[in-house]
Amino acid sequence: MSNLKDYLFYQDDWATIYCGDCLEIMPLMEPESVDLVVTSPPYNAGKEYEIAITDLEYKDWISPRLREIKRLLRVSGRIAINVVFNINRITDDHKEVLFPYLQWLNEIVGCGLKLKEDIIWDQLNSGCETAWGSWKSPSAPHIRHMTERIIVAYKEMWPLTSEGISDISETEFMRYTIDKWRISTEHDRKHPAPFPIDIPSVCIKLFTFQNANILDPFLGSGTTCVAAKNLNRKSIGIEINPKYCEIAVKRLRQEVFDFRKDN
Question: Most CB atoms closer than 10 Å: which of 33, 65, 103, 204?
């Protein structure tokens, strides 16, 4: 029988990284041990780290992972999941429109978590898509995407059950208790879908006290763990691709990030 040590890739005083499928690793973790899950999961967009699957298969992929996330959350544990509203996925023979946001929303409710907020992430410098569809014609126009969503939910109760030290400034609190976050995208990470560090940083500061336990079950290049470490939170990251685990470890060892209080 496997244990957590079999998947251990890296560990220091603040961060632990496991390499493998989160559906294999999360069942080995202690229940009710996580204060916040903050992540950007695969969108089923056919990126290099994904196998394109049907909507039904994607639903069946999401559901068991959310049930494990729920098991790991404390009674007042929260989740903040960054997911795109819809994508145009092009396969060899056709183009289809998929709605990852709706699938995650439905499965969050279906597994018994309670919805709290739906935040629009205005990507500012995303560069968006360049295809206009039917240029200057109502024949078949395309909407170019410059926003994504952050779904916020919780396990059983929204007020935190423990006290702690808050490190969010007045300016940050006023700015990020509005349902539209204006945060630039990342373009320079060695990952096809980089997660800007301001997203987990804001979620961590807004939704947890210092020394909280943070989990990212789709760690990618390690952004959530870097943000947590620099904000005095402990974190666990799970990533299935060893290449991205290596990048995450390098960042944890080398990066110094000063989160701008008045950004």
Answer: 204
Which phi-psi region, left, alpha or beta, contains residue 43 (left: φ > 0; alpha: ψ -120 to 50)?
alpha
Domain residues for the domain of 96 are: 4-126+143-254
Give the mean model confidence (pLDDT) for residues 240-247: 96
- The answer as to whether 13 is a domain residue is yes
User: How far, rounded to the nearest angstrom, does the alpha carbon of residue 9 sit from its chain's CA centroid?
Assistant: 20
- Structural domain includes residue 138: no
Asked if residues 197 and 256 have their Cβ atoms less than 8 Å apart, the reply is no
Residues 6+ apart with CB under 8 A from 219: 17, 39, 225, 237, 238, 239, 244, 245, 248
Residue with the larger pLDDT of the pair 2 and 16 = 16
pLDDT in tens, 66-86: 999 999 999 999 999 999 998
Of the candidates 229, 179, 253, the one whose C-alpha atom is nearest the C-alpha of residue 9 is: 253
| Contact partners, residue 68, CB within 8 Å, separation at least 6 | 22, 23, 26, 27
Encoding tokens for residue 91? 């396969």
Is 133 part of a structural domain of the chain? no
Check if the beta carbon of residue 225 is closer than 8 Å to that of residue 7. no
